[in-house]
Amino acid sequence: MTRSAERLGAGRYIESAAAPTSTVTSVHELRTHDGAKVAGVLRTVPGARTVVAIMHPRQDLTHHVLVPELLERGYAVWTQGTRSPNNDIALVHEQALLDVAAGQVFLRDQDFDHVVTLGHSGGGTLFAFYHQQAGAPSGQRLATTPAGRRIDLTGAEMPMPDGAIFMAPHPGQGALLLRLIDPSVLVESDPLSVDPALNPFDPANGFAKPPHSSTYSPEFVESYRAAQRRRIERIDEVAREHVAAASQARRRFAKSADPVDQRTALAPRILTVYRTDADLRFTDLSLSPNERPYGSLFSRRADLTNYGLVGFGRFTTADAWLSTWSALSTNADFVRCAPGVTVPSIFVELTGDQACFPEDATRMVEALGSTDKSHTSVPGTHFGGPITEGAPTGASLAAAEIGAWLAGRFG
């Protein structure tokens, strides 16, 4: 094993090609339907008639690896953040749809013939959710978040894109966390508390350090996954208690005008969710087999990063937990939203993906509502890295497939 493979976080960042020298770049600040401000970067090249919009609910994709690849093929690229990029403590997906809508309105006002969305990783579910809600009659769109917060999707302008590209989309942040969360946590306030019977990193349960694959028994896998769901249910219950307490304080303040009630309503109730890098498939490569390397999205040593600061859903408000991270409460679930994707679509699966496994890809493609949909696979890891050292990157291979599809559909 090379030293680079041993580093925590190895393989997450991919070198990208250079953008064409003819690229023209402009930065734009947009106002959403509910008055928030979001920013985006438009890059275009001479003759571009189709623009590809790239977004993620919580990451800044200004320098996404596909940007120069698409520009080189003659397409304009719009990269945009949501209202709180790189900080998902208060990420409410229903609000993020208003951010997406602001970008789509802006692009419709530009001189392009076609607007196509491109969702990579969590951006896939964000755009599937947007397509679903944009395609619904305004009166049938969501009016509240899972926490009961009012959201005005009914009055928002939500243009429907002309096409949809999905590259290595995972099934949604809630669905992803359901498979990642460590169910051996006994006490939510104690990051070191462990139920030995459910510890995924105990050799007694089948764990093996890299480069050796672990071997978990079918009985352990079944118990583990059931316990993961129970932990999500427990955190959901706490989140709903926090939401109810804040709601009660708001009602009290409406009657009393007492500053104490107002402060109680405003006080953030932050959930700290420990140990969320523990999908059994990270260390047992016989589960959902594909060409992925040993390890998680964050490192080759999930047994270590699972205990660290970095991880999905680590700090979150109750509203954001229910909207984004709870598989049992979120509206942002790829398979549930996919029937609303009715425009021409392409789904690019990466054969070494550590977040979208083969059975996930099959379910997601089957769920897409489009009658014109393509499903292709290329060698690569989730973030677009190569399968083996020296091989072409998954991003470059995906770009070739995407470029050919765009040319065939939109010229």
Q: What can be said about the biggest beta sheet?
A: 8 strands, mixed
- Cα separation of the termini: 45 Å
What strand order characterises the main sheet? Answer: 1-2-4-3-5-6-9-10
What would you call the shape?
globular
Mean pLDDT reading: 94
- The first-level CATH class of the largest domain is given as Alpha Beta
Tally of DSSP helical segments: 12
Give me the count of strands: 10
Q: Determine the CATH topology of the largest domain.
A: Rossmann fold
The CATH superfamily label of the largest domain reads Alpha/Beta hydrolase fold, catalytic domain
Radius of gyration: 22 Å
Structure class: alpha/beta
Strand content: 15-25%
Please provide the ordered H/E string of secondary-structure elements: HEEEHEHEHEHHHEHEHHEHEH
**Total domain units:** 2
Overall helicity: 25-40%
Query: What are the low-pLDDT stretches, counting only 5+ consecutive residues below 50?
Result: 1-10
CATH architecture of the largest domain: 3-Layer(aba) Sandwich
3D architecture notes:
This protein is an alpha/beta fold and 411 residues long. The protein has 2 domains: 3-172 and 330-410, Rossmann fold (3-Layer(aba) Sandwich); 176-321, no CATH class. 34% of the residues lie in helices and 15% in strands. It is built from 12 helices and 10 strands. Strand 9 (345-352), helix 11 and strand 10 (373-381) form a beta-alpha-beta unit. The termini are far apart.
Draw up the topology in text:
Blueprint: H1 3-6, E1 24-31, E2 37-44, E3 50-55, H2 66-72, E4 76-80, H3 93-108, E5 114-120, H4 122-135, E6 163-167, H5 173-180, H6 218-256, H7 259-266, E7 270-272, H8 302-305, E8 315-317, H9 318-325, H10 334-337, E9 345-352, H11 358-367, E10 373-381, H12 394-410
Parallel strand pairs: 3-4, 3-5, 5-6, 6-9, 9-10
Antiparallel strand pairs: 1-2, 2-4, 7-8
Helix pairs in contact: 3-4, 6-7, 6-9
